[in-house]
Automatic annotation (TrEMBL), chains A, B:
Its main location: membrane. Keywords: Cell membrane, Hydrogen ion transport, Ion transport, Magnesium, Membrane, Translocase, Transmembrane, Transmembrane helix, Transport. Its cofactor is Mg(2+). Proton pump that utilizes the energy of pyrophosphate hydrolysis as the driving force for proton movement across the membrane. Generates a proton motive force. The gene is hppA. This is K(+)-insensitive pyrophosphate-energized proton pump. The chain crosses the membrane at residues 6-26, 54-72, 78-99, 119-146, 158-177, 235-254, 260-283, 295-314, 358-376, 415-440, 497-515, 535-558, 604-625, 631-650.
Amino acid sequence: MDIVVVAILCGLAAVLYGIVTSRSVLSASSGSARMVEIAAAIQEGAKAYLGRQYTTIAVVGIVMAVLVFLFLGAIPAAAFVIGAVLSGVTGFIGMNISVRANVRTAQGASESLQRGLSLAFKSGAVTGMLVAGLALLAIAGLFYALVNIVGYAPNDRAVIDALVALAFGASLISIFARLGGGIFTKAADVGADLVGKVEAGIPEDDPRNPAVIADNVGDNVGDCAGMAADLFETYIVTVGATMVLTALLLGSGLTSNFLYGLMALPLIIGGVCILTSIVGTVFVRLGGKQSIMGALYKGFIVTTLLSIPALYLVTQWALGGDMSAPIGAAAATSPAVDNPVAPQDQTVLSMSPFTGMDLFWCMIVGLVITGLIVWITEYYTSTEYRPVKSIAAASVTGHGTNVIQGLAISLEATALPTLVICIGIIAAYTLAGLIGIAFAATSMLALAGMVVALDAYGPVTDNAGGIAEMAGLDDSVRTRTDALDAVGNTTKAVTKGYAIGSAGLAALVLFGAYTTDLDTYFANVEVDFALSNPFVVVGLLLGALLPYLFGAMGMTAVGRAGGEVVREVREQFRSNPGIMAGTSKPDYARTVDLVTKAAIKEMILPSLLPVLTPIAVYFVIAAVAGQRQGFAALGALLLGVIVSGLFVALSMTSGGGAWDNAKKYIEDGNHGGKGSEAHKAAVTGDTVGDPYKDTAGPAVNPMIKITNIVAILLLAALAH
Amino acid sequence: MDIVVVAILCGLAAVLYGIVTSRSVLSASSGSARMVEIAAAIQEGAKAYLGRQYTTIAVVGIVMAVLVFLFLGAIPAAAFVIGAVLSGVTGFIGMNISVRANVRTAQGASESLQRGLSLAFKSGAVTGMLVAGLALLAIAGLFYALVNIVGYAPNDRAVIDALVALAFGASLISIFARLGGGIFTKAADVGADLVGKVEAGIPEDDPRNPAVIADNVGDNVGDCAGMAADLFETYIVTVGATMVLTALLLGSGLTSNFLYGLMALPLIIGGVCILTSIVGTVFVRLGGKQSIMGALYKGFIVTTLLSIPALYLVTQWALGGDMSAPIGAAAATSPAVDNPVAPQDQTVLSMSPFTGMDLFWCMIVGLVITGLIVWITEYYTSTEYRPVKSIAAASVTGHGTNVIQGLAISLEATALPTLVICIGIIAAYTLAGLIGIAFAATSMLALAGMVVALDAYGPVTDNAGGIAEMAGLDDSVRTRTDALDAVGNTTKAVTKGYAIGSAGLAALVLFGAYTTDLDTYFANVEVDFALSNPFVVVGLLLGALLPYLFGAMGMTAVGRAGGEVVREVREQFRSNPGIMAGTSKPDYARTVDLVTKAAIKEMILPSLLPVLTPIAVYFVIAAVAGQRQGFAALGALLLGVIVSGLFVALSMTSGGGAWDNAKKYIEDGNHGGKGSEAHKAAVTGDTVGDPYKDTAGPAVNPMIKITNIVAILLLAALAH
């Protein structure tokens, strides 16, 4: 059977898993009428927000689709629309299952920890499998249609342009979804906490707080829908970039059949890992020690171990059975012989021959990177280890020392992942050159189904805790959901570290695609990417600036929108004293509506930053110093944004997770427990960490991709 | 007369100015016996700390001197010792004048604002002129001795090695001084604030606080001595790197006489700007509006404007009178013709001919960059503008929103300086290639005397306020010193932005020296610095990691040492209840001693990070992938550290200054004034900003230089 067809079948299996598992989740009890009522309010708010958000994004999307059509043609425009729409669909489905699973998890947790974990994780797994499945279907379906139905050669420019446009569609929607959702969730969270916990002195998720529903809506539209769109984008971009780079670098040196197999390999890697992820989900259950993290780890480890032989087998299949025959030797001298700069670059890109076995080892490198990043992130964000405990201890001496220690940990948390990524780059590159790095990134992303499952479980448990509190369930239920939620903070940080780590590899691949495209389109322009070229340094600096500026905008947006929530809640308390007395209900919908408007307004400008900057930098530098320096600066910008973005994102997501769990660690009874001065300081740290880890930090990942993809599209548009 | 001799005379003029002005400051009244007693305690603590600090550094310094002697020979070892010793001397003198001026400024402020400003500024000017003067004397003296006395050619390897070793000595001592002083001052400050203001509820600088003397000592050993050593280092490295680059790139193509003039040009630029700075100091006086910032600006503007014709005249002189003759054409093809990679790089480094007029315009670019950075930093850190006001407004909704807004501003504050630096790089490069960038950086640093004067005035006024408070002077005195201090926060941030901005240019120059040295020493090794080489990417990532890891260590050190101060102060309050009652005196010396030990212990490891990392990266990568990739990764590391360090340093120093002044803005009666909830939140922000702006952030500047210099020395050592 055709490899791509098998990959498509695997994608369909993921969708089937999603449908079956959704039914299983939905068949569970929703608990009392009060719980159903609360959940309905959250559902309504989440739907209303996502509807408005996607309507707004659609306007930008349509403009972009028209531009893609005008500059690149009909097929890329169609691919762009597919990527954009499916990105939106992924977010919508993720949100829909999560707003239904939350109340069922609360009810499940009232029965047992295992039942709560099981429901929350199943809901996460639905989102996870649909992210991976839909992404795989989109890219494999497009490739199959263009090559096997329309009849293009696998490395035809039409196929490459379509893959890049698909990635652009997915990325563009993702950055809006990630940022809009991130601003919504944290504006509501910060606002609710500031007036509720700090001013009014009522606990988190108290039904008297007019922002409490908005806060719970936020978990679903930000941590769930936004995250799903983000990982969908990461999957498409990574797998797509691997295929594009394979076509560009090796296309002219291989037989059409062999190239088809090699380009299909990333797809079947994704396909087979969906199957191993589905098997892995079965193993997520509490052991004798009742360790929640242990239960999740079991599923992850089973998936990873099963993936190893599976990757070997599909590689062998895709390469026609021979794992030791050299690949790439024929292409060693190809792409741009007439370009005096390029050959040297190409030698460095290493098209020295590598074998199927080398590729397999690169995939193992990807799996090892994923495992290490999971482990390092857990170290930095779990309540078990030094970093979180040090922040908790620093809370004893006040707000200031809590924040100082949290910032120190957030800076420190970048070190080990960076070393892992550097070693991974060197290992994969030594094995199989740039193609090796691409396949390492692909095998990282192949586990996305499982990783997203672990992450999407988090907001469900967070919501479940909120519902338990608002519905006045027994304290033991809240204790169980809190335990689930603390692990959720870690798994949420893990996904972000994983996404940005894979971005580190993917950006190199995209840069490779950029330089190769440059050789193809502008063979007569000698671009010098050496660090001794000051325009390269300027490009690096401008690229490095993007995550900072973007982060500043994200943080300011949360601060501003959060401030509006504070004023709204104060106003409701003031005009309706019955709320605090418990005699009348606050107007939840008004707060949701306010946050919705604020988040959508605030997401536009920062999201356009990575779209417009590469274009502006190219044209300004080209005008000042000529086209070749324009290309050099633009290329350097692509690496600058990853070199700086990696650190900004890692520090923000790990630091934020650590602050959050330091608060939970104190709430568990350490350093005086709830209500102590240390706890107040820890709440401050948590508030600071919120926009760090859930707004600005994670949105850096799609931002990096967009910058890269826009640059590649710009080359195509300039060449046309 | 010989140009270098004139430069030396200018350096001596600076020293003379220092002596005369010191006498003028010392002749002012020290006020009451109580004030003298307090000042004596501060003096004693500062001397004890610096003594211990330099003793510890001396151990490291001697080891390094021996290594330099063994690997490079006697002259470089001697140059290293000169740089190291003078760096220490600069710090000592700066501290000595500042601990005497503080009490006189307090007394002066009791007479009038003008008198306080005048004394504080004069004391700052002594430090400023000595920094510039001693740095110029060191480098001009060394150059003169080697060329005119010993008889080496200006571009002889012995001269180049000596200049690099001199810079290494200055940088190595500076990073210890900056970091050790930074940890001391902020550990004492944070500790004093946390127990004093927050727990005991006593005002800042209350004599009952056992950490109050340590806090005031910190201003002198950190903000004054540490800063002086830092700027001394920046001056030496920038001027030295310009000379070295001139020798390396143009040495073989020019006549010996012309080369001597061109290499002496940076020295005479420094010399003449000392004279314009001295003239500028005369104009620092309050106008009709009593604007303190205005008074300081007057001095700065006069200096800058006078420097323009002065720079033109000395350039004309150094180049033999002809400003329009082409320079560098003969060298266009020289350094490493036998290296197939290098020629292309060299073309890009641009040795296309440029004229004296081009160089003059590059110097103007440097002045414009300096002016713009001063103006941007003032915008971000002064109480007059949106950034500080936005942090103050965010304080109303609590600690969390204050910190969020402060972080947002700190991220945002990197944008404009980066754009200015990028435009400056392009402008200078377009005018005169890499040499143009070097001369732009040199003219920036030529203003160091004036800039340091503006900065060093800050800690003196801060101390004066403390002495006024402790000695129980009239509230009007404290109001005046507070007004002076608020401006001091801005000027302190300005110097840091200026130092790191110049580092952005200097790092490019040092990278140029690295690649040129590589071509000279290892002409047979083809090093590929293109961004498409994954080892370059790995180098960039590892370089970018350094400021993060270094920042984490600095922040943790302050947190840990500050925690020790908190425990010590609590213990004194507990064991001696008479302190709070005002019946017995706290043991100030015990606290000073404790902070001294903690700071010295904590400074060692992070200071060695930039010394050891380049060596480790080279040897590890060379072992894995061969020498050429080792050189590529090492070179990329040098740029990675600046690309990331620029942002880390700018965000930390501007953000910290903004937080500090947001607190002052509230204390001025906005948002409820002192004692309000907003004020408490602003104190938290200030505490967080302290290690940002005074420990981790500013130490990034010498860190960048050391990394670069160690790499250059490593090349020399490997070649020998």
